[in-house]
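cron nightly-structures :: item 1 of 1
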Amino acid sequence: MGLFSRKTTTDPYLPELSVKQADKLRELSIAVLGRLGVSGAAEGDHLSVTEDRKYGLFAVARKAAALPERDWKGMVEQHFSAVISGDAGGSDVTAEELLGRVYPKIISTETLARSQQNDPARYAYARDVAMVSLLVALDSPESVTYLGAPQIEAAGGADIVWDAALQNLIAQGPGQPADMSLDEGSFLIFETESVYQASWLAYPDRLVELLGYKAGPLGALLSIPATNILCLHLVTEATSITDISAMIKVTGIIQSQHPSALSPPLYWWDCTTVQPISGHDGESVHLFVPEELASIL
């Protein structure tokens, strides 16, 4: 995690790429689908094929970011050939197969709102978690596709699908933590290759239990600077403002530079709910610590 300059032209839907690069990738993807006999339209972070089938662009964008643009065409053709042959869109996947491949995935509320502009009911099952949104994603080797309400119902309903998504996340696990220290503050950072790593923000109790940790009465501090990164600090009597400052600073640096950036705030889990305790106004960071937590700092 080096320190890089902020990308001023980052695409809002595919943050691995600039706006110009993302537009090129969308055009190329639509052209490739056409040659494969599939008609699609680009809508931000995905290609819409039918009302119930969409092909996510997250995976292909990550591949594109690692390649020179002259190599994109072959990569995109290979990617969507595999996607279509494997039916990654999910409309023909049986309920049993679907339940084995779903995961909870956090996205920004702004991205969710944009995705619902043409069909407000499509993601009506979405959950709010500390001012970000949680959807159910169908995972495949080549793509990640958000399930729509019709697919959720066809698989047995929201309760069954959400439970399966959580169980799959637990089975995947959060990985091994690394110690992070900065300016006398410290916390743990969990970085994996999984785009569902940040989803643990919605399940801090299960995370702590799975890790074998014991949370005190004031719970934990968490942050999700990128889809594959989670930061954690268990709050104890030794917790100080330096720990909070370290987490905010490192989270902000990662979030501003990571190709799969997610959310810059610091969150507090009070053993019951998760809430943001920091906000950003341009380059300025505002901290609003609840009285119960502030009493030990």
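cron nightly-structures :: done
The chain has ten helices and 15 strands.
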